[in-house]
Amino acid sequence: MITLHHLDQSRSFRILWALEELAQDYQVKFYKRLPTFAAPPELKLVHPLAKAPILTDEDQTIVESAVILQHLQESYDTAQKFKPKAKKDQQQYRYWMHYAEGSLMPLLLMQLVMNNVPKRVPWLIKPVAHKITSGVKAGFIHPRLKDHIAYLEDYLSKHEYFAGTFSFADIQMWFPLDAIQSRTSGSYPNITKYLKRLEERPAFQRARFKEQSLT
């Protein structure tokens, strides 16, 4: 039996969505974050790093979104619906599967951390913390993130999906693009249209309903 170990407010929604796309039998074990936003200790019993998502499939414990998606596609996508067949699209598929967490998410995570630092320091040094984090964001994070967003806007102006037709690369890319839309203040018409296209998929909506029923 496939079990998704699903931590709230985490990347594991991707895997819930993929399982719904596959129409595969599975069960979900839900874990609620601690007040510190850390994962609960029960998740460490599944994997020492207590990261999410975690998938257990028979005797395998699998972590990292791209690896889990690859495992699900190779093991259960018998009709080959969720990985492109054309070689040029397969290259794009591999690229976007790794780009999501390797290039884009680190910048978004750094921005999140910088936004939270001034909130978590003693009041006496809050102005200093704010000045330092604002400098890091303005001098390092924002210029690079702006380049990535422009790159993605341009790509999505020419492509409906990231690797030909809809694939698991789109599930992988959904999370950072949703984060861009919710955590930044710009207007990104092509990203917005792309996310709307994904979120209209019946499997996405079933996964969202299931996630909401767990919390």
How is this structure best described in words?
- It is a single chain.
- The chain has 215 residues and is an alpha+beta fold.
- The chain has seven helices and four strands.
- A four-stranded mixed β-sheet has the order 2-1-3-4, with helices on one face.
- The radius of gyration is 18 Å and the shape is globular.
- The model has no long low-confidence stretch (mean pLDDT 92).
Tally the helices: 7
Q: How much helicity do the residues have?
A: 55-70%
Biggest sheet features: 4 strands, mixed
> Shape, please?
globular
Strand order of the largest sheet: 2-1-3-4
Q: Radius of gyration in whole Å, from Cα?
A: 18 Å
Brief synopsis:
The protein has 215 residues and is of the alpha+beta class. 58% of the residues lie in helices and 9% in strands. The chain has seven helices and four strands.
Keywords:
215 residues, 4-stranded mixed sheet, 4 strands, globular
Question: What is the strand and helix layout of this fold?
Answer:
Elements lengths: L1 E6 L5 H10 L3 E6 L22 E4 L2 E4 L1 H12 L10 H30 L9 H33 L9 H16 L5 H11 L2 H13 L1
Parallel strand pairs: 1-2
Antiparallel strand pairs: 1-3, 3-4
